[in-house]
């Protein structure tokens, strides 16, 4: 096998552990210097390849690369930029080949969710369709946990842990004060299309009456009357009500609830997300004092409370991606195979990119209780292993020490620049 | 000294470490069983005393009490219920005396902020004014950090750490994506009347260009033009802009900005807090893609990322309160005296309740940069010691193990119930 350089890019929304995958890719590539030369990272993801804006990771020390394992965000920058089909925008693919040729790149590692695996799949076809063979491996990542085949997606476990811990903690606060103050607390979490993250909030409850008392899933159309009855019952039975609400909650007509609010003086839909809207409904109809929180990026950046399992799996898929490439596999993505839930055992598997691309894994209806406001034991036994273990970053002066890479640019070799659409 | 029982109550908004103070009070009282009998806790704070709803903490095991040290929220329940002056509502004080007499209570430990220290001060006067002498010690607690005399308040350091860590983490996320996605991120934090918590966000920055790029303080009237210029400059210079906004930001007229929004169809002020409002201004005037988060209770319940210094101080003021009482002091509150900032050294002092009650400590103007959007070195050297060290709770199945006390009621001895106003 002729020695070639590798290209690695981060794609889509970043996570608390996507850099752990980068760490796995780069550390493993460094161990295979007989076949992999330098690892070039795309600055801001695939855009870095298109604009020939490459980062030379060989200029980073071993300790800097090791520190990626405990650093959240995307160390090389990421982007939301989906390549179109070969027919629709052949110029992009030709440009990729130009850049890859110029920098002697023979390996393509693409770290992302569903759209990104689709891109990786398209790039893997460059050999057949445009005569530039390249070893192309997807590296799974998404807080949305919606990739098919793999049992779970690196990134999700840490968000799940953050949400479950936050619900447990905030619930103790609300319970303390409920007699004379806030009785209803709403935590809005991510998950526009699927309720995986909202479901994770349910793990905080261990026995009858524990928070969260209500979970609002995107999968269950919002029924105001039933919801209000449930809130009221929770306040009457337990003294308070903690609600985990997915940002993607919809009404019966399928509209996002967060977009059905009133409009401001400019006619814009009222900003404010789902949580304040739900709070308003509670206030108007039940009159209870409420508080609400919107975790937003905090939940997917919270490396300080990352799941140890998630960190290990994120690293493992990065490592496996390089190992797959080294042994000549192509157009595949490492997966996580669950061997057992209790005790939790897992191993790395492999899935063809063509089977991963553009398939979304839904939250099974069987994970949601029949009435639609909670999770089932089946969900709990799926979710609980994914939040196991703590993997604390180092601290200095009271704050986590996260690495800032040098991110030195690779000298450009092409004369022409490329204009992004 | 005749042996008497003690009454302990938690008051006002709870914190990640108020139970550490409870732990200090109860463990220390148990060591002084020659003069302190049982510690009765008020269920839901002072309300528990007025309604004779007492909790017998002697029924809790040593290990359960020890676990209070790492459990957030208020383990006995708290309330917002301020006693009026003796003249205005003498009935309440007479009732307190009835309950204290009935349960042979000679010590009163009141764990709270400014209003609570005022109540403690009034109760300390019962001896002189109503002939029921009681040893009365305040135990400081408030995330708002606004008690006078003490260098800082237990509860604040942990919120400060949560906010600084969250800003640092979310900023890495935003920076990763800014090229093609979110350029402006706003984190709304607590502090309706003072910018202590917002200031803590500033500690996340270590060098020029680090987030947060802007802090909005309640102390600095919001000037939209200057703010927008600063946002725009940050995006142009660094590629993104992270803003920490106190919920208490006001306009030049002194109105809370969060209350100046549009009104909905019912004429209610638009809900949604300060962060979405600031986001809307950014979108309308600059057109940048934004995200916002509202930490709300998550910030003051986040025991998982508590400051070790804060936990130690919270315990120490509880312990000192009992020691003060045992050695015959009265109408005082333990304080934290800073001996040195670097290295940080502190010790416990004492302040008369009369000097603490109803005095608020403002954030010094010298802690805010002249332009009003950042913190000074003076602020940094004050704040940094308070977030030092991690004090992780134990975990089981991926979640922190927080104690739920039995909270067994003390048998009522009074025939008459008491109606709260």
From TrEMBL, chains A, B:
Cofactor(s) named in the record: Mg(2+)
Enzyme class, top EC level, equals transferase
InterPro entries according to UniProt: ATP_PFK (IPR022953), PFKA (IPR050929), Phosphofructokinase_dom (IPR000023), PKF_sf (IPR035966), PPi-PFK (IPR011404)
Primary subcellular site in the record, as a coarse category: cytoplasm
Positions with a binding annotation for diphosphate: 13
At the top level of its lineage, which domain of life is listed?
Bacteria
SUPFAM superfamilies with a match to the protein in the record: Phosphofructokinase
Molecular functions per Gene Ontology: 6-phosphofructokinase activity; diphosphate-fructose-6-phosphate 1-phosphotransferase activity; metal ion binding
Arranged from A to Z, the UniProt key words for this protein are: Cytoplasm, Glycolysis, Kinase, Magnesium, Metal-binding, Transferase
Q: What's one Pfam family the UniProt record gives for this protein? A: PFK
- Where does the Phosphofructokinase domain start and stop, copy by copy? 9-324
EC number(s)? 2.7.1.90
Q: Enumerate the catalysed reactions.
A: beta-D-fructose 6-phosphate + diphosphate = beta-D-fructose 1,6-bisphosphate + phosphate + H(+)
Question: Which positions in this protein are listed as binding substrate?
Answer: 142-144, 190-192, 247, 297-300
Cellular component aspect of the GO annotation: cytoplasm
Where, by residue number, is the active site?
144
Relay the activity regulation note.
Non-allosteric.
Residues with site note (Important for catalytic activity and substrate specificity):
115
Site positions per UniProt: Important for catalytic activity: 141
Reported function: Catalyzes the phosphorylation of D-fructose 6-phosphate, the first committing step of glycolysis. Uses inorganic phosphate (PPi) as phosphoryl donor instead of ATP like common ATP-dependent phosphofructokinases (ATP-PFKs), which renders the reaction reversible, and can thus function both in glycolysis and gluconeogenesis. Consistently, PPi-PFK can replace the enzymes of both the forward (ATP-PFK) and reverse (fructose-bisphosphatase (FBPase)) reactions.
Q: Enumerate the PANTHER family for this protein.
A: ATP-DEPENDENT 6-PHOSPHOFRUCTOKINASE 1 (PTHR45770)
The name this protein carries in UniProt is Pyrophosphate--fructose 6-phosphate 1-phosphotransferase
The record lists the organism as: Nitrosococcus halophilus (strain Nc4)
Query: Species lineage, top-down?
Result: Bacteria, Pseudomonadati, Pseudomonadota, Gammaproteobacteria, Chromatiales
């Amino acid at each position: 096998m002729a020695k070639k350089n590798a290209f690695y890019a981060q794609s889509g929304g970043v996570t608390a552990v996507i850099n752990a995958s980068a760490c796995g890719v780069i550390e493993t590539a460094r161990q295979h210097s007989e076949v992999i030369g330098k690892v070039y990272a795309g600055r801001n993801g695939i855009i870095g390849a298109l604009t020939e804006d490459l980062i030379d990771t060989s200029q980073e020390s071993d300790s800097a690369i090791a520190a990626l394992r405990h650093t959240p965000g995307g160390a090389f920058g990421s982007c939301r930029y989906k390549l179109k089909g070969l027919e629709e925008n052949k110029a992009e693919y030709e440009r990729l080949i130009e850049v890859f040729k110029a920098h002697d790149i023979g390996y393509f590692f693409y770290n992302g969710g569903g759209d990104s695996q689709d891109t990786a799949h398209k790039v893997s076809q460059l050999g057949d369709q445009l005569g530039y063979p390249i070893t192309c491996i997807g590296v799974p990542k998404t807080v949305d946990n919606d990739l098919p085949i793999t049992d779970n997606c690196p990134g999700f476990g840490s968000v799940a842990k953050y949400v479950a811990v936050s619900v447990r903690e905030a619930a103790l606060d609300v319970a303390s004060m409920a007699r004379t103050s806030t009785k209803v607390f709403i935590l809005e979490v991510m998950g526009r299309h699927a309720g995986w993250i909202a479901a994770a909030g349910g793990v905080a409850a261990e026995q009858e009456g524990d928070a969260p008392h209500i979970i609002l899933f995107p999968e269950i159309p919002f029924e105001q009357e039933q919801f209000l009855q449930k809130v009221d019952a929770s306040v009457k039975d337990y003294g308070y009500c903690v609600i985990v609400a997915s940002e993607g909650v919809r009404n019966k007509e399928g509209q996002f609830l967060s977009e059905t609010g009133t409009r401001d003086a400019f006619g814009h839909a009222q900003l404010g997300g789902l949580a304040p809207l739900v709070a308003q409904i509670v206030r108007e109809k039940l009159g209870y004092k409420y508080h609400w929180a919107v975790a937003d990026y905090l939940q997917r950046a919270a490396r300080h409370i990352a799941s140890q399992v998630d960190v290990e799996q994120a690293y493992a898929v990065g490592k496996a991606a390089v190992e797959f490439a080294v042994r000549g596999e192509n157009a595949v993505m490492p997966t996580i195979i669950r061997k057992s839930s209790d005790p939790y055992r897992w191993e790395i598997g492999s899935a063809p990119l063509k089977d991963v691309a553009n398939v979304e894994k839904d939250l099974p209806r069987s994970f949601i209780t029949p009435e639609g406001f909670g999770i089932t034991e089946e969900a709990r036994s799926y979710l609980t292993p994914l939040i196991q273990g703590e993997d604390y970053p180092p601290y200095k002066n009271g704050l986590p020490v996260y690495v800032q890479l040098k991110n030195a640019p690779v000298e450009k070799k092409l004369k022409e620049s490329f204009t992004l659409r």
